[in-house]
C-alpha cells in the first residue's frame, strides 16, 4: 500500500483498521526525514467508485500532505470529460483527478499535467492553479520580465473567472487510466457535460505499465491492406486488448441494413481477460447536411424496432430528460429497447455503486438526499419508458446522417411515427468532424 511518506518497516504494509475506520502507517517525513504518520481512509465517492484518501502529517516539522488514490483497477478504456461552467454554482462540482489525469482550462489553453491524485471541486482546482502561478511572480518580475507579464494576463483572467465574470468556461479532464471523474447532474443539457471513452494507444498502455516498450505493436493497421471486403464474410484482425494489452482478435463483418446502407460490425473478445466490446462503423460520402430522426414510441412493439446510432450521433429525449452525447456509447446497432437499456445501465453504474460494501451501505446512501431523489425520479421514469407505460419520443441528431430507425411501413411509404429533418451543421460540428480542415480539391498538392 503506497503512502505519502517512506514506510519505515515492511511488516506495517498490512495495517489493521482502527475504531474510526482508518488505517495508520508510520512513515518517514519527506521534508525532515523524521517520524510521521500516514492515515488512510477508504471511502465510496457518490457517482463514482471507491478511493483511498491519504493524509500525512509530521509532528516534528509540521509538514502535511493529502492525496487521493483509486482503490480499483485501471479501466479498460481511457476517459475524457468536457464540462462547461455556466454559473457560479458549477464551481462546486466535485472532481476526482487520479495520478494520470490531465486537467485543462480550454479558454486560456492552460493545462495542469498529471500529479498526485485529488478529491476536490472545480473551484479548488482553479484556486490551486492561481496560487501556483502567483507563487514565483516576484522572482519572475526580476529575472524574466517577459514571462512575468505573460503570466499576469493569465492570472487576471483566472481571478475574473473565479469571481464569476468569465462564463461560459470550458474545462476538460483527460485520464488514460479511466479513473478520473467530474460529477454529472440531472440538469446538464446540450454540450454542458460530455463524457467520451476511448481506446488507449500502445504508448499509453506502456505509460500505465500495462505493456512494455519493447513489445511489438499489433499489425491491425496493415492487416486489411489490399483486402476486398465481401458482404457476409467475417474478417479477423489482430489487435491489442485495451484491458490487458495481450494479443486479441477483432472480428469484422460487412452488413447491409435494408433501406439504409452498408455498415461494418466490429466485435472484440479477449481470451486472456474476458474483455468484450462491439461497435458499428458507418461510411460513405459526407452529406451536405446533418439529419435528425425523431421516433414516437407508443407501445412495446415500437421498443423492438431496429435502430442504428452512429459514433457521431447524439441521442435526445425531452420527454425523458435524456441527452447522450456522441462518443459516450460509440456506434450501436440494436433495438430501441436495447439502446435505452445500455444508456440506463451505463448511467446507473456511473451514478450509483451497484454493489453493497458488506457493511449495510447500499448504493447511493452517501449521496445528498435531494440529489439522490432527483436521480431516483429520473431512473424510475426511464424504467417505465422501457416498459412502454407511457408514450415518449427519442431523437437521433447525426451531423453525418449515418443513423437509422426501422420503419413499420413497406417500401417508400412514410411512417407516421417517424419524422426526418435535414439541418445545416453548426460551425462547432464542422470543427469536431474536421470538415473545415478537409481539402477536397487538389489534395495531392502541398499548400
Secondary-structure-based class equals: alpha+beta
The second-level CATH architecture of the largest domain is: Sandwich
CATH level-four homologous superfamily name of the largest domain: ZPR1, A/B domain
Q: What's the CATH topology name of the largest domain? A: Jelly Rolls
Protein architecture, described:
α1 runs antiparallel to α3, α2 packs antiparallel against α3 and α7 packs antiparallel against α8. Strands 1-2-3-4-5 form a five-stranded antiparallel beta sheet, with no helix packed on it. It contains nine helices and 25 strands. It is globular, with a radius of gyration of 25 Å. It has four domains: 65 residues, ZPR1, zinc finger domain (N-terminal domain of TfIIb, Single Sheet); 121 residues, Jelly Rolls (Sandwich); 66 residues, Single Sheet (N-terminal domain of TfIIb), CATH 2.20.25.420; 144 residues, Jelly Rolls, CATH 2.60.120.1040. The protein is α+β, with helices and mostly antiparallel strands and 447 residues long. Belongs to the ZPR1 family.
Amino acid at each position: 500500500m503506497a503512502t505519502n511518506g517512506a514506510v519505515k518497516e515492511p511488516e506495517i504494509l498490512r495495517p489493521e483498521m482502527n475504531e474510526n475506520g482508518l488505517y495508520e502507517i508510520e512513515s518517514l517525513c519527506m521534508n525532515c526525514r523524521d517520524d510521521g504518520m500516514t492515515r488512510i481512509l477508504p471511502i465510496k465517492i457518490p457517482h463514482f467508485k471507491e478511493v483511498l484518501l491519504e493524509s500525512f502529517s509530521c509532528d516534528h516539522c509540521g509538514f502535511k500532505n493529502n492525496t487521493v488514490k483509486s482503490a480499483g483497477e485501471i479501466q479498460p478504456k481511457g476517459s475524457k470529460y468536457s464540462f462547461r461552467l455556466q454559473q457560479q454554482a458549477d464551481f462546486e462540482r466535485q472532481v476526482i483527478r487520479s495520478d494520470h489525469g490531465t486537467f485543462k482550462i480550454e479558454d486560456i489553453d492552460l493545462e495542469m499535467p498529471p500529479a498526485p491524485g485529488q478529491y476536490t471541486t472545480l473551484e479548488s482546482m482553479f484556486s490551486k492553479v492561481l496560487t501556483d502561478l502567483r507563487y514565483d511572480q516576484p522572482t519572475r518580475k526580476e529575472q524574466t520580465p517577459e514571462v512575468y507579464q505573460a503570466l499576469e494576463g493569465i492570472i487576471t483572467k483566472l481571478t475574473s473567472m473565479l469571481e464569476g465574470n468569465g462564463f461560459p468556461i470550458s474545462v476538460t479532464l483527460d485520464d488514460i487510466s479511466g479513473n478520473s471523474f467530474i460529477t454529472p447532474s440531472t440538469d446538464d443539457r446540450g454540450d454542458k457535460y460530455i463524457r467520451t471513452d476511448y481506446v488507449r494507444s500502445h504508448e499509453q498502455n506502456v505509460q500505465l505499465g500495462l505493456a512494455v516498450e519493447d513489445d511489438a505493436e499489433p499489425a491491425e493497421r496493415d492487416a486489411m491492406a489490399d483486402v476486398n471486403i465481401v458482404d457476409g464474410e467475417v474478417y479477423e484482425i489482430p489487435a491489442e486488448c485495451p484491458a490487458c494489452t495481450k494479443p486479441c482478435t477483432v472480428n469484422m463483418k460487412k452488413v447491409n441494413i435494408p433501406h439504409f446502407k452498408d455498415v461494418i460490425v466490429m466485435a472484440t473478445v479477449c481470451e486472456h481477460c474476458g474483455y468484450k466490446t462491439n461497435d458499428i462503423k458507418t461510411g460513405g460520402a459526407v452529406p451536405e447536411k446533418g439529419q435528425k430522426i425523431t421516433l414516437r414510441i407508443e407501445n412495446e412493439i415500437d421498443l423492438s424496432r431496429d435502430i442504428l446510432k452512429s459514433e457521431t450521433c447524439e441521442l435526445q429525449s425531452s420527454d425523458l430528460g435524456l441527452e447522450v452525447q456522441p462518443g459516450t456509447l460509440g456506434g450501436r446497432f440494436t433495438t430501441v429497447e436495447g439502446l435505452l437499456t445500455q444508456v440506463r445501465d451505463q448511467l446507473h453504474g456511473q451514478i450509483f455503486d451497484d454493489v453493497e460494501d458488506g457493511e449495510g451501505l447500499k448504493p447511493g446512501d452517501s449521496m445528498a438526499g435531494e440529489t439522490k431523489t432527483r436521480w431516483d425520479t429520473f431512473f424510475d421514469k426511464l424504467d417505465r419508458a422501457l416498459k412502454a407505460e407511457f408514450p415518449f419520443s427519442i431523437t437521433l441528431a447525426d451531423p453525418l446522417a449515418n443513423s437509422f430507425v426501422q420503419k413499420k411501413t413497406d417500401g417508400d411509404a412514410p411512417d407516421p411515427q417517424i419524422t426526418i429533418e435535414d439541418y445545416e451543421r453548426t460551425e462547432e460540428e464542422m470543427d469536431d468532424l474536421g470538415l473545415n480542415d478537409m481539402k477536397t480539391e487538389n489534395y495531392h498538392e502541398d499548400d
